[in-house]
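Why show two proteins at once? Because comparison is the fastest way to build intuition. When a single record is shown, students tend to memorize it. When two are placed side by side, the eye starts asking what differs. So, the first record is below.
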Amino acid sequence: MISWNRIYKPPREWSLVKNMTPISWRTAILACLGAMVFGYDTAWWSGVLGMPAFTSRYGTFNPVTKKYAISSPLTSSGSGIPTAGRIIGSIITPLIADRIGRRWTMLGNEHYVHCVHHCRGYGEVVLANCQREQALTVMKTLRKDDGTAEQEIADIEASLEKRIEAGSWLDLVRGSNLRRTIISITIPTVEAWQGQSFMGNYLVVFLISLGAKNQYLLSTMLQMVLLVTVTLTFWMSDHIGRRPLLLFGSATMWITFFITSGVSGHDSTQTSDSRKQVAVGMLFIWAIAYACTYQTVGYLAPAETPTTRLRSKTSGVAYFFQQCGGLIVTFVAPYMQDPKYEMKGLSVEELDVLFDQRLSTRRFSKVPRGTRTLAGGVIEGQEMASSVSSDEEKGNEGKDGAGVTVTGTRVVGGTEI
């Protein structure tokens, strides 16, 4: 049972008031600026995909909707290639950081240079290189009293003494480290699967396909909800706990996405305004649930779970798997939303023939439904019966919109299909 008295404390007892020093505030603010730059780098593509100037320049005209649209392969590639680059970087960066140091690794971003110089992880690296006095000096800038700084340095030293090995990649799966690695990997990866990658890359595109008005205004409002929520609830992970937050977040985010998919439908022209409003409302509820659960805990797990020796490597692997999960979403989502890639209404036998003829899946939607077989095809490994006369074949043959030869009823293996 969660006690309200345990959750709420007077402002004078908050850690932000009691423990934060000017250097700590500067470090936190600069880290936030770096995160903002990262957010911009990963989210701008979502807005570009919905811009009329971009879609008319690089898209194709749809005579049915009378609008330009970016093809699914281009959308998928544009979203997935940057993610693939982050995957490569997540493995290379720990190697470079351990060899030349955090400061030089992040030299390209001035904000991160300052943050890394003053963060607790920097103290651990300095201690690992037997520079205790320098580590203590850094720690004292982050703590208001010298006693707390001394105690944390002593704790770090004790942790390093227990693991005097170099900390290789294989150590990630040895002994108790395996459990730590699994925890560090699972939470960020599930975060990507819970909608973080989809919302970051395809929110505007989804709102346009939904038929919602003022897509960019809604997108901006949703980002504001995320910002306000995470600002007001970042303390919950320490007072309520990681596990309750993750369970609540997973359930809420899954339910909201499930309802969104149910009410939005596949054709926006057949979606009523009330259903559109419900879908948009569910997205905002998702944003609130995500901001107070996975958005904070997703970063905490790789930072606090690993051992001191393996923290950088574990964080790199955790980020690698998170981006792999995001890569799956970014590559697959455009095809799932594209009505061209649709097998609805086709029988199993018809699908056998379409695949045997190597027909592109994007042309499946153009095959007339109810057509039982296709000329020259093979069903279940059996060739078409030759008992049908060639004259009858010619009378039944025709061409569908996809350029696929369609025939009438055939007899295969003595059974009419």
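Second record. Ask yourself what differs from the first in the token line.
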Amino acid sequence: MSEWRQTTVGELLTLEYGKPLPENARDGQGFPVYGSNGIVGYHSRAMVKGPGVIVGRKGTGSSGTVTFSEGDFSPIDTAFYVLIKDSAQIGMEFAYHLLVNAKLTELATQTGVPGLTRSRAYEIRVALPPVPLQERIVEIIGAVDDQITALEAEADSLLRVRNAALGHVLTRGGEGWSSAPLSNAGTLTRGRRFVKSDYVQSGLGCIHYGQIYTDYGASATHTVTYLPESFRDSMRLAQPGDVVIAGTSENVEDVGKAVAWLGDDDVAVHDDCFIFHHDLDPKFVSYFFASPLFQHQKRRFTSETKVVRISAANLNKIVMPVPPRDEQERISGMADAMDVQVAALRAEAARLRQARVALLSGLLDRTIDIESAERKV
């Protein structure tokens, strides 16, 4: 067969149900365990031989999410896994790209817990190229994925260099340096509760603890979300120059991540965060919370349950080195310069991800020529 043909997802593959494997039954080693939105743990025995494709079956924001596993794996009962009906017609990796391009997340039903039904997925019409063309498309997209992976690896490496440099400088100290527990260096105030349904298009800027991990670097001048201006008097506010610290996380590594607020107005702070008011260089303080020195100290004070927390009382016990102000600014400037490079690498990776989506769509609907795509990548 040398021509593309029209078919449906259901004619090419089946979506099989994963099986229950509760967290307390996983031994944490060996093969990945997949839920509806990716890896949720590890277990020494795998249920499915790899390579394979996992599709989110239910869950808000994860129904229809498609993930590829290079090796053997176990899908739990919030996910489907793919079985190919005839491997002479379609390869597993091409099936992954086909399902990604099908935008299964848009098919999720919204009654009760959002979920993807197999019958709706099976009805999706797709154009299937012959296997040699499938393999060429997989290679083209793989080349883009390799570029993205390399950019992310370079960014991660640079962050490790930054953190190592911070650890070295802060541990070494110097003339005129002192040290003090946070309780002596400033004041900590817990934020006040608001919920995502409170958000509006504009108004009082607000910082939610989850955004500190996903949306902010070491400092920020604008918020990504807002509350009604009428909330101002009932909220606890960070002033320009304050540092906002996440008091809650899903892991020990992230709890205590901080962002220096450098905007022009006060901002509301969520009650799973702390506001640190001080007279130091704000970026220096924020970078201290990213340093190995802080990471090492905080492990003595975090409660390592399903949700990891650190209290204000324990944060106040953390000892911070305090160099002269000009040295604080020099250290934060050094870290800032590295962060600029990291941001540029992340931005290029994000640009390539967007280009990848358009490239895959164009290759599968034949608006992009395979030969020309091969020459460009």
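One difference worth noting in the second protein: Residues 131-172 form the longest helix (42 residues).
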